[in-house]
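Dear colleague,

Thank you for sharing your sequence with our group. We've completed the structure prediction you requested, and as agreed, I am returning the results in plain text so they can be pasted directly into your records. Please verify that the sequence below matches your submission; if there's any discrepancy, let me know and we will rerun it promptly.
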Amino acid sequence: MHASRALAVAATACAVLGLGAPLAAAGGNGGNGPTDLSVSPSVVHQGGVLNVHVEGCNRGGTVTSNAFPRTHLTVTSSGQTATPRVFDHATPGRYNLAVRCNDSSRVATASFRVVPGRGAQGGLGGSVTPSSTEMAVGAGLVGTAALGGALFISRRRSLSGGKA
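Please find the predicted structure tokens below.
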């Protein structure tokens, strides 16, 4: 009798494990949810671009945040990536992003920080006109160069005797 009870308990345990394995595989990380989420850089300027890398979204997905528009994941050989561009007018501070796969209701989150934009570092360009002093100095330099060139040519002709 003891052997039959042990056999019944073993059969029940195998049946429970056998039925539970497919459920565990369906709910596991086998392509049904975002895993290994990374965001770089962790500090980005207004208008800058983030690099988001995640695994587990074999059928694509989306990345969302208040700091940038909804961005779709692109499947690559090393996982799934997205490169969202932060809004130019995003308020500096800490933001969260969420990654959701198309074939899962699970969400992975990460945080990043937005700092004020640097703006263009282009210098003055042509936005400032020269002053009258700068114009006078420039005209004097051009006149001196013209006079020096004329003297050089006239002395050269007189030294060679005027013959070509």
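Summary note from our side: Helices lie at 2-27, 132-159.

Kind regards,
the structure core
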